[in-house]
């Protein structure tokens, strides 16, 4: 059946802010869906609260709503836009949940809107544990056996059936509280007794344990004609027990015979039919007992998922794009395979290479968190690598993580084999390197298998890598044979250098001298059976190079690598925009990146895509391969975050032209002394500061400057290792804690700054072309200075800065841009304290706020920057119409206000004892994503931002207030207003006293440490009797209490405010949201801006007349 | 084992291309038509599929041998490929059903292989130049002068015009009993039949009489089978006129017929259509085929270098006088004929492998269709089962 003619407009629901478990893979899938639908002539309406995404670019939809993804807001959009259908299967669980809520509250029926992609019934069958279990049985397959029990006796009988170990899960407890493994009857009695107690329904589920089984995933697509294909099989290297998102995974599955694989395929097809997914995709997870091959179906997702993004990049089969086409009625055989252009999409890709995905974690940001990997996902990003064999793909993937110690190494290992094996029993970040060391120290595959249950085949591959390492070390000369051997197993020049006691440069020179260079193969979905039309390449030290020559002028864009806290989708946004803008300007664009979740690694974003690690060696090889034809105009490094920037000097040294701001100028901004000189010359002030290269130096510097001081290492992103320190003991403690995680040395000194208390922080994104400055936006932080800019909410335009302040900021930004010698983007952070403007730092590169500014003011900063880098001027871009005539420093009074709010992952991380980690904000960035609220004034915009980040603010209920002494004066008015709005006020004794003297009556609640006869605040929060928590941190004595309160609030999903600035903003928002939200699309805002401009010009003309 | 720079094997193609690698399996010299197979699973089934007789098979999937070998997955009594080309041979075996390593079986059965070469480059070469004669020289043979090696390759037989049925067929007839409700008996002409095929027929209630390829039409008719089945097999169908004549005789006698792969090509020729050699064949387990009757797509397992020459649209008249015929299935990749259906005879065939092994089970229903057609024919003709 060709596409449905009755669907003329579709509402696509995005996935909202980036959180752990739901990252930019849904930007990738949503972007694809929007493109496909528009190509089909369908009007696309999009809702997504995440401004950092490419899909929320006004170019990708006809109406783009950067609004909270709540049923109420979506219903408002439906009423306004009247879409024929909603596509909820490409926006992760968020979109699916929103769609289900709209079904349940009757909105879909009320407005006559159809769900496409998956029907309500199919979603329910896929998601409901018990319905799904029945389907598995009907498909002739097995689920894990389980029993529901209500008494200890029943539990003991069930345990007799299931055998030990088994999993105990109390029903309806929050966050899986009280669940655990029982290895024997004693364990069982203890866990079940506690579990029955903590379950509100006195119910405990006992389930057979499949811990340590092999884990697989199949990605399927099905159309209305029941044509079903398996796009990809994925095998988890880490066995069952570690979340797939946290596992090292490989595609295709490598340890299944055809008979076993076909069983999985048969079951999958039966399940997708029974569930009824008939216009899209799904994935199904399996566990296989390595002893006898028994298969258990774990779960399914009736939608495009993180694995779908991985499968798409791994195979070249664009799942999201095809899912969107199926959703509007096409059949698989009616869709062409993009890569071959001749064969249909109704086939199963076959791979002649191996793909390995490795997770990237951020435990260093949450030192209190338990780093054990479990069935709850904890990684914040991932890297993928493609190699002609597993050893190469694995080594490339580990190298792509860009993290110290993430690659295999053969240096000194002080731990014994037994110690290493013992450590590797617990799955953690970097376990594979621990295993490599254990195998290196003589552990057998059998021992390693017993410790980890990782399939022996994968263990042998590590052993193979160790053996090749021995060969490299022992071979007489560094000749062509040994180099090829090393390269065929993915060894980097760095590793070879380590093994032979040489430098990376010497190994590289020797390799070049012998002509040992990689060739580039193509991801073609068909293992070479048909010619591929799409240049999607990966390197291999094989025979034949497949890169086709081109005589065009080309620009290479370096991506931002795996997502991590501080470097996420925002940088991908900038890279993708550069690619689009430069393609429009006639350049051939070449993208290098290793993050499978992104739009940049989509094979049709750039003219050519190289899926490669972003290490100097790998990037140089791509540039070498591209040097045979055409003209390399240069490499863009200022858009891919610290990853790309870090390569600048090495590329330059290799004679590669760097576009835009020079590597020397980049250093200038980072180098403390030089930067101070620039500020001095411009008459600008920085907070008093110094640098130190060791602990004693830091103590002297801090005492000289005066406490509190802000310390941070050089060349880090996301405020890694950045802290406010109050005394000398703190400085010493800091050095102990960062040991081994952060490097402080002569080349990378520690920066020590005077910390500005009570200052307002300002962020500026600007463009500079050598003569003209163009302000993208001036953003005012809501939190005071000291909270990392990535974690602070901010508003654009600034709401409390006057024209005079903005002018000062503009003049200072210009001086800095000139001083550094910026050619492209510049981000400067300022603080205004006691009326004085301080420059905190300047970064001549794309910042995290570039997409936010672009969405808020309609200024395409990244596109413009890429054009400046290839030599165009700001004046050119204004003439061309790419940049508005008026820059972002002046925003008309009737323009909307945009608020960006950070989304934090505290709930994901628990201490080893099961408590949530502390949720205080600080100078080190810990947020994973952001949302934007846009509306006519600040309170409305902030309310939308909060609703987008955490769900709607309550408009009534109980507020708990406990603030530090310094905040007691400021808290009075906000609480008074809350009381007037009808909130019940709960407070700790000290806070209550102040409130009472100001005429606000409150109920006194005990702190945990005061525990007398009454209920404590933590108990109240847990009982769901508190709706908002206000708790600002005080000195260390009360810290523990504060922690308990904040942990309970985060655990209970209650709005939590830990700074006075947030409190004031939130109260204003609560005031205003009583009337509900109105929705406006970015396109409408753009029209209003254009109308404004026209009338202003007209006025100008008439006034001149 | 410490590393050395020595390459001790070479793959030589008839156009003079040479690919140096490492010796794998048995050491020595072997010749055959080089073809590539794109399945990511099922190397054991591929190796033991008689259709690969006379061919040097290159696996496009890089890691081969990971799951070892077991008795259960043997598709016939032995490995049939002339030679085996892989990129990364597994060092260990990891699977609960594994009984032996692949390398062990290759050595044991004297199969000469090569590993550690750019299999993708060779695949692309074959794709553009077509399947061709080739040879693997390993051990001391790898040291022969290149010219001598090439001459040896060129002295080998071309696949076109080759009849290999006698090499792969069973020498003696044997019977596999029907399972469950007996439908009747099926005479299986073993042109290189796979174990799975026989088992699937037996599972459908057929008593399977597997016959040597040298059997005569008279002997078959004398057996009074409920149905006739032609299996897959190696070689050029145009060199198998005896089997074509045998089939014509049986079709005239009204025995219901089902053929797969080589059997499809023989039915095509029996009906009077031509067959031709594909440039590089279809060998993989991901091949999309359209069933014209239902409009549905099947992901099929395929292994053929020849195909039936007939228009894929419309109703055709059998040039050999067997009435109306239609192409029932065709490849969505390149429109090659993938199935024939006789409208005036109870005979049909498919070019692909409903028994899969290796490959997806999407087309397994064809065995049901065969059973149903045999049953329907019995009820209309009143023939004894």
Automatic annotation (TrEMBL), chain A:
Domain called ATP-grasp: residue spans: 133-328, 676-870
Residues at which Mg(2+) 1 binds: 285, 299
GO biological process, one term: glutamine metabolic process
Stretch list, region Carboxyphosphate synthetic domain: 1-402
Occurrences of domain MGS-like (ranges): 951-1092
Pathway, per record: Amino-acid biosynthesis; L-arginine biosynthesis; carbamoyl phosphate from bicarbonate: step 1/1; Pyrimidine metabolism; UMP biosynthesis via de novo pathway; (S)-dihydroorotate from bicarbonate: step 1/3
NCBIfam families, per the entry: CPSaseII_lrg (TIGR01369), PRK05294.1 (NF003671), PRK12815.1 (NF009455)
Database matches in HAMAP family: CPSase_L_chain_B
Subunit structure: Composed of two chains; the small (or glutamine) chain promotes the hydrolysis of glutamine to ammonia, which is used by the large (or ammonia) chain to synthesize carbamoyl phosphate. Tetramer of heterodimers (alpha,beta)4.
Name of the protein described by the UniProt record: Carbamoyl phosphate synthase large chain
UniProtKB/TrEMBL annotation, chain B:
The entry's keywords: Amino-acid biosynthesis, Arginine biosynthesis, ATP-binding, Glutamine amidotransferase, Ligase, Nucleotide-binding, Pyrimidine biosynthesis
Domain (Carbamoyl-phosphate synthase small subunit N-terminal) ranges: 7-137
Xref: InterPro entries: Anth_synth/Amidotransfase, CarbamoylP_synth_ssu, CarbamoylP_synth_ssu_N, CarbP_synth_ssu_N_sf, Class_I_gatase-like, CPSase_GATase1, GATASE
SMART domains noted in UniProt: CPSase_sm_chain
Chain intervals for the UniProt region annotation (CPSase): 1-182
CDD domains: GATase1_CPSase
Domain of life: Bacteria
GO BP: 'de novo' pyrimidine nucleobase biosynthetic process; 'de novo' UMP biosynthetic process; glutamine metabolic process; L-arginine biosynthetic process
Function: Small subunit of the glutamine-dependent carbamoyl phosphate synthetase (CPSase). CPSase catalyzes the formation of carbamoyl phosphate from the ammonia moiety of glutamine, carbonate, and phosphate donated by ATP, constituting the first step of 2 biosynthetic pathways, one leading to arginine and/or urea and the other to pyrimidine nucleotides. The small subunit (glutamine amidotransferase) binds and cleaves glutamine to supply the large subunit with the substrate ammonia.
Cross-referenced NCBIfam families: CPSaseIIsmall, PRK12838.1
Protein name in the entry: Carbamoyl phosphate synthase small chain
Organism, as annotated: Alpinimonas psychrophila
